[in-house]
Design brief:
By secondary structure, the chain is an alpha+beta fold. The chain has one domain (20-200). The protein contains 4 helices and 6 strands. It has helices spanning 20-41, 46-62, 73-84, 188-196, and strands at 91-99, 105-113, 118-127, 130-141, 162-168, 171-178. The protein has a 6-stranded antiparallel sheet. A hairpin with a 5-residue loop joins strand 1 (91-99) and strand 2 (105-113). Helix 1 (20-41) packs antiparallel against helix 2 (46-62) and helix 1 crosses helix 3 (73-84).
Amino acid sequence: MRWIFTLLISTALYGQSSSLDEINIKWNKRTLSDMAAQLKSEIDDPKLYYRDSINYLNYLEMLSVDSIDEISDRFTFLKNVSLSYPNFFNDYYVIELTKLGELLRTYKFIVEVNENHTVNVYGFLRIAGDWKSVGISKGIKLELRELNEIIVDNKGLNIEKIIVSHFKVDNVLLSKYFGPFTLPGGNFISKVLSMYLSSYERYYN
């Protein structure tokens, strides 16, 4: 039975007519469509293409575009954020990655763009089904580049698969996928990861 979310979502985050369901579906659709386009336009290494094609098929299974998976990472994340912070976000990015181990650890980082050209970063971790904050950093000077300007690099140092999505209010403008070892250093994504994950401290230069 479809779960009904009755809390009124702040207009600053999702817009008056939007809901968690709509944002979740939009996010999944944008990620899948942009991944498919990216495979065609950016991946010219046959081995990388094959690997990322398999990953794309996996995401097709995980990211529902027709119905809501109430226990999915994205839906539970949106629910948690809307409850914890009911009154912010207008222009922001979400960085997603999952670390493997005895327990899956899924991280999501919100990079909120301020009018004074600084950012606020909110880190979240899901482990054993529950989301918790892993820290907030405000007023950081960070050079933001458009996601389509950050080109995959087969000499990147990321072990995990990473997806970065750009939102404005209730619209998902773009999603960018970085397979293992394809995220270049020296950009805002690697900087944010280096702030929260020790394995990425050497990655930002």
